[in-house]
Design goal:
With 728 residues, the protein is mostly helical. The protein is flat and about 120 Å long. Strands 3-5-4 form a three-stranded antiparallel sheet. It has a three-stranded antiparallel sheet with strand order 8-10-9. It has six domains: 90 residues, Orthogonal Bundle (Recoverin, domain 1); 99 residues, Recoverin, domain 1 (Orthogonal Bundle), CATH 1.10.238; 108 residues, EF-hand (Recoverin, domain 1, Orthogonal Bundle); 82 residues, Orthogonal Bundle (Recoverin, domain 1), CATH 1.10.238; 86 residues, EF-hand (Recoverin, domain 1); 100 residues, Recoverin, domain 1 (Orthogonal Bundle), CATH 1.10.238. InterPro entries: EF-hand-dom_pair, EF_hand_dom, EFCB6. This is EF-hand domain-containing protein. It comes from Drosophila navojoa (Fruit fly).
Length: 728
Amino acid sequence: MHTTKIKEGDEREEMELNQIWRACRKIQGAIYRYNFDICADLKQHDPDCTGYVSESIFTSVLGKYRKVVGMSEFELKDVTDYFQIRDGRVAYRQFCKTVCSENLSKTADKELATGLEWNDPWHLNVIVQPEERRKLCLILFKIAKETHLPLMPYFQDYELVSQHVGVVTVSHFSRVLHFMKIPLSEADYLLLLKRYMKDGYLVNYVAFLKHIDNIIEYLRHHNLLDGSGDLIENFPGRLVDLELSQLPAINGCQMIHPIFPDACNHPKKNRGECDIIFCIQNYVYKNRIRTCEFLEKFDALQVGCITKNQFERGLSLMGVGKYLSRRELDLVMDRYVDPVDTNRIRWRNFVDEIDTVFTMKNLDKMPQCVVESPLAHIKEMPRPGTLDWQAAPMDVRELCEEAIAKIRIRIRNRRLYLHPFFRNYDKLFCGHVNCHQANQIFRINGILLSNAELDAVLHRYGNELGFYYTKFLEDVDPAEYAMPNMVAKQDQKECPPFPRDNKVPEQPSEEVITRILTSAKRQALTKGASVLDFLTDYDRHREGLILESDFKRALDNALVILSEEDANILCNVFRSPTRSACIMYKDFCKALDEIFIQYDTNMGDKLVTAVPLLHLPNLDCIDCFLNFDERTTCSKALMKLARRPDEISNLSQVFKDFDRQSCGSVTQNQFLRAITLREMHNMLSSREFEAIVKCFAVKRGLCLEFNYREFLKILDVLYATGQMKRNY
């Protein structure tokens, strides 16, 4: 144990020395960069040349250059403490030798330092393992291949702010790689840091960019890059083609780029005419596009045909052209080509087929026809990047079903409402969030899934835009428990009668309803909660009605704690007669308002008056109960304290100083401090003190506090009673 403590002390001392040395290196770099002389400023305050100055002078001199150097106040204090001697002075001569490497006797013939001996621009760490060196070369090669813009400006912008030379922090280095869309796994990123790390928290980006430029120059010199800067395919490589590894798992969510490689549930090169038409119909339906308006302006003579170039321009104006390749566009034009003139397209046939997603043509001649909009194949069409769930492995589908069932149970039992959490992240209202944001929402609401279950859910509801939370919420939170079950009642009416005991559900008695309302009244008053504000948040249209689930959720938020059975009884009492799934919360709040006022309606004058009432709830609790021994001890202790009531000790002023909110109660510690301040603590033992605290305890929130007002009243009564006896 003693050896372990010695080792810990040595490690702590080594860390402190490293911090001091890092601060000195900052001062060194600033001296040679800005050419200011700290040593001369310190020497002016030492006329006797003793080599020592006071701590305040040393701190003030370094404080002038602190912002230029980039030192924090903690680093300045550490440097001052390190060079400080026992009498409080600071050995600035030793500091100057360390920082300036001089003896304060520079000559004019002495060569000036350039500062390069302090900061090596090509500082690199040695990679010993040959496997790591090869892997590092492959990583640099792929970064050079993925990089199409110069990286130097991104690092230099940070350098202007931080005032460093050739180095950036680890976090900024990571941000630049992420901004340039260069995905690296955790192992690859740590290998880069292992090579270019400097001083334990900086990255030498100058050497990193130099190596990237060397690789690019090598590829260009050997004609391995085409005109656009991309690598020529199938070149006889001296370098192994290594695919960049995936990003590390974040909160159990595997993030890859792109998220799902399948772009439209089938490869684009294999899409046929029907698939292309379905995709166009889906795009037109989502964006509510009038296809005719973009094509009819090219047909000035209204012959129903336009050229292929005009048809392609119309699709581009419509916004569809950017999603179609040249091959797919040719397939669409071959489908609607004019048999008389093969250079023209029958655009009216194209418009009629695309508009079937909205309605049918000549519908006025078919009054009995039922129009389905959108069509079933368009409505069920998977979004781009969605995994083919029917072709997914069976184990993944079973894991997803188990996870969905677990989420449904959690939502139903805890009455969770996940829509606001997803909408907070969905700023563009596109119905999608990032995968790690979905995982974060699950964790916030206590939905704990394993990594395998989370991956299965993400594969089920993920696409190239992210996590499709709209579809997810439709499946896991249909809110059936909040809707009236009208079908069951119809089935009961259609059932043939047969002899059985028709038991009517028992209605709660008035005593039970009064007990529940009294409990809610007491909690609303003691906790000072405005129940109406919590209930009004769920009534967006101010109808005076909210859903039953929202009513229960608002009571929980207002700290009105009721059991499930009591909450159901309240919902049945205040249920709306016209909308059985909703609760008339205003009537409930009116019942709670009777705590403070009583409504008196005068039918003759048609006036409603409110008479204020004083409601005194019982503040006693189980923790305040005293047995016979404790009551005896408390009474004896109060008789002792009654010798010095408020008239003599002025104890009330001390309590009022502690009671900033004027609620009439203080904490147990504040009560002890108050009687100690008036020197009354010597009159009580620890057992008597605990008995008094328990006797006058009152529950505030989750803690017990001391009711000093009742305590002072009791002391005054006991003092007056004893004084009258003595006078008698």
